Amino acid sequence: MKKIALLCAASAAGIAAPAFAQSSGPIEIADATTLDVIVDGTLRYETVSQPDTAADDADALTFRMRSGIELVSHGFFALGEMEATMAIVDDYNDTIPGNGIEPYSVIPDPENVELNRLQIGYKSKAATVTLGRQRIALDDHRFVGNVGWRQNEQTFDAVRGQGKIGPVALDATYAISQRTIFGVDSPNAHFDGDMILLNGGIDVKFAQIKAFAYLLDFDDEKPLRLPFSSQSYGLRAAGAMPIGESFKINYAASYARQSDYGDNPVSYSADFINGEAGFAIGPVGLTGGYELLGSDDGIAAFQTPLATLHKFNGFADLFLTTPANGLQDYYGTASIKAGDVAMMKGLNASVTYHQFDSDVGGMDYGSEWDAALAFKIGKIGLLAKYANYKADEFGTDTEKFWLQASFGF
Predict the structure, then answer these.
(1) What is the bridge-based pairing of β-strands 112-123 and 344-357?
(2) What is the Cα–Cα distance from 329 to 366, expressed in whole angstroms?
(3) Which residues pair with residue 258 across a beta bridge?
(4) Distance between CA 300 and CA 319 in Å, rounded?
């Protein structure tokens, strides 16, 4: 409780951060030339309890700061950004070897100072080309994301081209390195290889329709990464349809087929299916969905190693790697967007239930309740989150709680 009180006091003092870097706006320094200063920070308390394991309860109070500048002139741009994370309370397993005995549950926010982004490029009304270390987040982050939830962001060393012609959008990336959330001191600081990310689609009334192809061929320098080399081809449609002034229907549907690629030592193929539908009446929303990460007879399962995985299959993060028997996730969410309430701006809350089963083998993995509450006071963003996973035939009982404050300018 002392650590929670410390976080609340620091939040009131203005120590906080958003998920993405923000700025107060560019400053014009010459004709058609601007300079933009980027600063954001996140102060977070996280606790993890796994009573059925030998690990002690973990407590982490971490503070992350990003700062950088972006220069734009006549369409050309250059951006550099550093990222630093410090552990104020470090009673947790940060995943870094060589730190001595860490008898705690894992919280993957190690202390870290690194170059987060360094990129140059050119942007016009029709197209953008970016070269260098950059943030890439495609669609809903299910296949490619920046893992913005963790203190150390995921970025990519890549060249990326984006174009838009009327309602048609095209996005193509060739990346040689995935810069992970584990920090520069980790043996998993980066995974290198040849990564081709192709994404294109069209906006039509009430829907955005996408096709994608993601080809991942990881280097054999890290053999444990080779089973994640894969080729995935799929389609996604998502949209919303207003009915009257206060009623809206939301939907999303995806299908993909994945198989081994490059130097993957395992031959397999598996399906991905996601269907989600919901509605909102004024501030209240209800959503139900189903997601399948299929298995090839228990040999191997559908994986999304570049995704923002915390966003899917429960906040407790039991399924960051899909089990070999695959995963079925039946979920439902109730939410409310209360708007401004007294000093609290943009108050919103949600509760989600997950039921997890295997794709093959008839296993009942377990179930999970998640909850979140978020609002702003002034320019400070505040967030509380809770996750409670009850294991049946997979993993262990896991309870997590977060308090977070954020700022950006």
Answers:
(1) unpaired
(2) 10
(3) 232, 270
(4) 14
Label residue 26 by pLDDT band (50, 70, 90): confident
| Burial class (CB within 10 angstroms; exposed 0-12, middle 13-18, buried 19+) of 379 | middle
Q: Which two tokens stand for residue 57?
A: 């309860």
In the chain, how many domains are there? 1
7's enclosing H/E stretch is helix 2-12
In whole angstroms, what is the distance from residue 214 CA to residue 234 CA? Answer: 9
- Whether residue 332 contacts residue 303, with contact meaning beta carbons closer than 8 Å, is answered with no
Residue 380 β-bridge partners:
377
Measure the CA–CA gap between 31 and 43, rounded to whole angstroms.
Answer: 38
CA–CA gap between residue 333 and residue 277 (Å, rounded): 11
The backbone torsions φ and ψ at residue 310, rounded to the nearest 5 degrees and listed phi first, read -60, -25
Nearest by Cα to 121 from 135, 101, 109, 107: 135
- Please list the residues that pair with 80 across neighbouring strands: 69, 118
Q: How far is CA 117 from the centre of its chain?
A: 17
Angstrom distance (rounded) from CA 37 to CA 409: 8
Which amino acid, residue 369?
W
pLDDT at 269: 98
Average pLDDT value for the chain: 93
Q: What is the CATH number of the domain that holds 124?
A: 2.40.160.10
The radius of gyration of the chain from alpha carbons, rounded to an integer in Å, stands at 22
Place of tokens 């004024």: 282
The kind and range of the H/E element at 231 are: strand 230-243
**Three-state DSSP state, 299:** coil
44: its two tokens: 């977070």
3-class secondary-structure state, position 173: strand
| Alpha helices (H) in 247-297, listed in sequence order | none
CA distance 200 to 275: 20
Q: What is the pLDDT of residues 322-375, one digit of tens each?
A: 999 999 999 999 999 999 999 999 999 999 999 999 999 999 999 999 999 999
Residue 55 is classified by DSSP as P
The answer to whether 148 touches 79, Cβ cutoff 8 Å, is no
Q: How far apart are CA 331 and CA 318, in angstroms?
A: 15
CB 254 within 8 A of CB 239: no
Residue 6 is which amino acid? Answer: L
Higher pLDDT, residue 406 or 20:
406
Could you tell me if 279 and 247 are in contact, meaning their C-beta atoms sit under 8 angstroms apart?
yes
**Residue 374's domain spans which residues?**
2-408
